[in-house]
Amino acid sequence: MRPGLYLLSFGGAVAVLVWVDQSPSEIANQASVLVLLLGAGLLGLIKPDWAWLSGVGLGSSLAAAHALYLVTGHPLPYAMSPSGWAGPITPLALLVPAVICAYAGARRWPADSAQDSTPLRSFVLRLTGRCVEVGSE
């Protein structure tokens, strides 16, 4: 995948994550974590060499968004807990699962395999136009 297209996909994942986080629903936190983990894993899958960017970028995007809300005075649809500047710091805990999922998506596949070991990886590689031999990544 070309770097520009990857960065566009990354920006889209961040936008969806921040959009889901804006929901006042009771399950918005769980939905945000699901979007975070799926986004990091898929971005790691389609660009394994940049898995660190997927994990760190998506993992810190909610903290950055909350800090931006605090600076601009933009109200959240829910009460940020803890309040003040501790509120944007606590979502940084999402860095750990995001990086783990990104590297799980970027996992190197066995070189002795004749074809990709998962249908999802084959589908994503075909969708993004990456034609690589397994093990040559």
Overall pLDDT metric: 82
Rounded to the nearest angstrom, the radius of gyration is 17 Å
Q: Which regions have little confidence, pLDDT < 50, spanning 5+ residues? A: 109-114, 132-137
Query: SS-based structural class?
Result: mainly alpha
State the helical fraction: 55-70%
Number of strands: 0
| End-to-end gap | 12 Å
Major β-sheet profile: none
The rough form would be described as elongated
Order of helices and strands: HHHHHH
* Count of helical regions: 6
Work out the count of structural domains. Answer: 2
Estimated share of beta-strand residues: under 5%
Describe this protein with a few key phrases.
137 residues; mainly alpha; 2 domains; 62% helix
Structure description:
The chain is mainly α and 137 residues long. The protein has two domains: 3-106, no CATH class; 110-137, no CATH class. Helix content is 62%, strand content 0%. It is built from six helices and no strands.
Short description:
The protein is an all-alpha fold.
Record the SSE blueprint.
Blueprint: H1 3-21, H2 28-46, H3 51-72, H4 86-89, H5 95-105, H6 119-128
Helix pairs in contact: 1-2, 1-3, 2-3, 2-5, 3-5
